[in-house]
Write a structure and sequence with these properties.
The protein is built from one helix and seven strands. With 120 residues, the chain is mostly beta strands. It has a domain of 77 residues: OB fold (Dihydrolipoamide Acetyltransferase, E2P) (Beta Barrel). The strands form two sheets. It has a five-stranded mixed beta barrel with strand order 3-4-5-7-6.
Length: 120
């Protein structure tokens, strides 16, 4: 058979998605709180999927991890998280996101962690 029996094809090169580097640091986009969302730090785990979280508005909330996030989020006291406050009970909320170290530096620069004096 001839080499061109199957037609001409271009070689597909996989593009590696390398992170953007500015000034020697990797740029990571941190998820910012939207309406009815707050940033908080885990103070104490109660067991199961419930824990006490101190939020940026100064209140402590009893928060739970919804089922779709239960296996994906490994949470410990001292972790910074994003809380979705319940509309019918503002003393409770759902943990929907866990912040990593590089995201926390961005949040500190923007002043969003000013209300959290943890002591950890």
């Amino acid at each position: 058979m001839a080499d061109d029996a199957y037609g001409d094809f271009e070689e597909v090169k996989e593009e590696s998605e390398e992170p953007v580097v500015e000034g020697g640091e990797v740029v990571v986009r941190a998820r910012l709180p939207k309406k009815d969302e707050l940033i908080g730090v885990i103070v104490q785990r109660y067991g199961g999927n419930r824990m006490e979280v101190k939020s940026t508005d100064g209140k402590s909330r009893n928060c739970r991890v919804p089922g779709r996030y239960r296996r994906g989020l490994w949470l410990r006291p001292g972790d910074y998280v994003l809380i979705a406050v319940w509309p019918d009970d503002p003393e409770k909320g759902d943990l929907i996101f866990k912040y990593q170290g590089s995201m926390l530096t961005q949040l500190r620069k923007k002043g969003l962690l000013a209300g959290l004096d943890t002591g950890f």
